[in-house]
Structures are given as structure tokens and as C-alpha cells.
Write a structure and sequence with these properties.
This protein has about 250 residues and is of the alpha+beta class. The protein has one domain. Helices cover about 35% and strands about 20% of the residues. It has seven helices and seven strands, in the order βααβββββααααβα. A seven-stranded antiparallel sheet has the order 1-7-6-5-4-3-2. Helix 1 packs antiparallel against helix 5 and helix 4 runs antiparallel to helix 6. The longest helix is centred in the N-terminal third of the chain and has 22 residues. The radius of gyration is 18 Å and the shape is globular. The N terminus is likely disordered.
Length: about 250
């Protein structure tokens, strides 16, 4: 798995993304991740049998795939877990077809986890019952396979900004198990975030280091609204490679 930083970050020192090592995990940890992997594969296999994939499930019934539109319209939301996601695209070139943005809304955020104080910004952060935290974004290829994870700046999603340590505690709460718009896609995305939980945590820790360095390098500017900083960190992923590493550990 490789890491890369957003081009707008090249003026700052590079911060390594601490990748998890399968051989350093306990047997219980590996077994938990492999259980999530089996669910990922089960959902993919069920769809592949009828020549479908997790992304195609979200695009069914639409007359096209338009840049910046959310798929499905109105997003996917689970009233029990308060997890939410949507799929869209806004990049040209490269291997990416589009990406998922995943969130936890205020009612699903564990008690006691607080966002950072809101600086003066171009727009107020969502607060109270409207608070929402992005967990991670998942990059997909044209065949409906996950190829990367990335973290981004606050202005990209309009979220409430929680520090990495708080978002890491929210990760286990992402669960969508209802049937709209696709039971298979919802279960697949839930399991994928479990399978790559350690990678996501590493990206979140890296995100906060990038934000802090950007703030120091650009005094007087609101780092969270700075359009020059979009993607704070990216990791290429492979479900098969991670499963192999876990099995060999």
C-alpha cells in the first residue's frame, strides 16, 4: 500500500502515514478484521453473481452519472446508528470513478466527544443536533472495487471538525444495515470501514498533523476554509492484499 499527499501540501514537510502491520496485531484483532473481510467478500460475490457491483447499485434508476451529484439523492442514513454516506465524483483522470463520503451525525456521536472550537470562518460549522463528523472517504475504480482511502479538509464536506482521537472513537458506530438503496452495498461499506479501521485511524492522525503544520505555515488564515488544502492524505488499498497479510501473520 502506498501513500501520497495532496499536491497543495508539497511546500510542507512530509509526514509519514503509520501503516498497520498485520504481524504486530493480536490473534483476536486479526480474527476480527478477517470477519469483516468475509462480509466484504460475501457482499461483492452476491452482486457479482448477477453482474452487479456496490457502486452500480447506487446508480440504478438514474439517467446518468453527473459530477458532484449525490448518489443516491438525499444520501443514505441509518436512523438507529445515525451513520450516513453518499457517493459522487468530481475528479478527472486517474483510476478513480468516484468516492464515498462517510459520516456520523450528532445523535450517533459518543457522549463527551467535543469538536474543536470554531474559528471565525466563511460559514458556521454545524452544531448541536446538526453536528456531523466525516469518518473517511473511499475511492472506487470503474469496476466497483475500492482502491484508496483519503482524509480531507473541513470545507470539502462542510462538517463539524472533531480531532482525530474523537473521530477514531466514532468509527465503530458506522453501521448501515437497512435495504435502501441496496442492502448489499450498505453491508459492504459497513464491513469495509471495519476491515480498514487501522488504516483509517492512521489517516486521521496524519490529517491532524497536516492541519497543524498548514496553520503554522499560513498564519492569519483559517486553515479549515483554505481551498489550497483539500486532501490531507491518501492511502492506496487492496482488499485481497490486506487479507493475505492478515492470513500470513
Amino acid at each position: 500500500m502506498n501513500s501520497r499527499s495532496n499536491a497543495s501540501y508539497t511546500a510542507l514537510p512530509e509526514f509519514a502515514i503509520e501503516l498497520p502491520k498485520a504481524q504486530q496485531l493480536t490473534l483476536a484483532e486479526r480474527q476480527s478484521l478477517l470477519a469483516a473481510a468475509r462480509e466484504v467478500q460475501r457482499c461483492q460475490r452476491a452482486l457479482a453473481k448477477v453482474e452487479l457491483n456496490v457502486v452500480g447499485e447506487l446508480l440504478k434508476g438514474h439517467d446518468g452519472f453527473y459530477e458532484m451529484n449525490h448518489y443516491p439523492e438525499g444520501d443514505v442514513y441509518d436512523r438507529d446508528s445515525h451513520a450516513q454516506y453518499y457517493y459522487h465524483a468530481h475528479r478527472e483522470g486517474g483510476l478513480e470513478h468516484g468516492h464515498f463520503h462517510t459520516f456520523i451525525r450528532s445523535q450517533g456521536i459518543p457522549f463527551g466527544l467535543l469538536p474543536l472550537p470554531m474559528p471565525e470562518s466563511q460559514e458556521p460549522w454545524p452544531s448541536g443536533d446538526d453536528a456531523i463528523a466525516q469518518l473517511i472517504a473511499v475511492s472506487m475504480d470503474a469496476w466497483g472495487q475500492p482502491i484508496g482511502l483519503f482524509a480531507c479538509n473541513r470545507w470539502v464536506t462542510g462538517e463539524t471538525w472533531y480531532p482525530a482521537e474523537a473521530v477514531k472513537q466514532m468509527l465503530p458506530g458506522f453501521s448501515i444495515d437497512h435495504a435502501h438503496p441496496s442492502w448489499a452495498t450498505n453491508l459492504w461499506l459497513t464491513a469495509l470501514l471495519q476491515l480498514f479501521r487501522l488504516h483509517i485511524e492512521a489517516l486521521l492522525e496524519h490529517r491532524d498533523r497536516v492541519i497543524d503544520a498548514w496553520r503554522v505555515a499560513h498564519p492569519g488564515e483559517n486553515v479549515f476554509e483554505d481551498r489550497k488544502l483539500e486532501i490531507t492524505g491518501y492511502l492506496s488499498i487492496s482488499v485481497d492484499d490486506w487479507i493475505e497479510a492478515l492470513n500470513q501473520a
